[in-house]
Inverse folding.
């Protein structure tokens, strides 16, 4: 799982 | 971007618009917790610091700026422009009881011990409980105007839709973030009682009134 993917959420 | 996330974001945006319109049109912020609005301003400020460091998309940048700007605008309207209408006697929740544990938890449970990462994690934890002063105010006065109920419903739906988004991303993209998921679950659970009252009362045209 890539944590930075969640950062593209708001 | 999947449909759950899009509708989650739109629901969040709708909540903010409803709140600002309510305050602006009625020239009053009665029934709204300034404490919750301060917490939201802190949440967006600490979460969107990455606006300075990372570019993701025009949509992402636009929404982040809107969320930060409107949260400050709301606090300004409540504490400055329409200060006289602010329900300060009922808005007595102590926000340090939410901020301090969120800080400690973010320092202990995070993905990476860096300033930006800890602040991001803090904002996720704080957001999950930021609505408590508002729910406390509603329970203290025993009622909420319909427009305030619509605001709360839109705001609560946003994280519930994000939960569906995370379920979708887990299966479709093999992606999950446990910190966001657990905090999102807590956040949504806090609204459950309100959701029940909203569906059984407000949608049937009645005012949201808590049982005596």
């Amino acid at each position: 799982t890539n944590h930075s993917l969640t950062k593209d959420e708001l | 971007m999947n449909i759950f996330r899009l509708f989650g974001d739109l629901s969040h945006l709708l909540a903010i618009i409803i709140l600002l319109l309510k305050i602006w049109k009625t020239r009053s912020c009665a029934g709204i917790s300034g404490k919750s609005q301060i917490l939201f301003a802190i949440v967006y400020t600490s979460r969107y610091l990455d606006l300075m460091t990372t570019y993701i998309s025009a949509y992402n940048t636009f929404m982040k700026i809107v969320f930060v700007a409107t949260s400050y605008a709301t606090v300004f309207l409540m504490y400055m422009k329409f200060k006289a209408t602010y329900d300060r006697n009922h808005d007595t929740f102590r926000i340090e009881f939410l901020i301090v544990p969120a800080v400690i938890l973010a320092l202990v449970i995070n993905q990476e011990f860096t300033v930006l990462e800890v602040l991001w994690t803090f904002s996720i934890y704080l957001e999950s409980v930021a609505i408590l002063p508002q729910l406390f105010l509603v329970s203290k006065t025993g009622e909420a105007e319909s427009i305030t109920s619509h605001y709360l419903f839109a705001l609560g739906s946003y994280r519930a839709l994000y939960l569906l988004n995370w379920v979708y991303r887990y299966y479709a993209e093999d992606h999950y973030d446990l910190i966001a998921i657990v905090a999102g679950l807590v956040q949504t659970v806090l609204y459950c009682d309100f959701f029940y009252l909203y569906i059984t009362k407000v949608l049937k045209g009645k005012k949201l009134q808590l049982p005596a």
About this structure: Chain A touches chain B through nine residues (CB under 8 Å). The mean pLDDT of chain A is 80. Chain A has no helices and no strands.
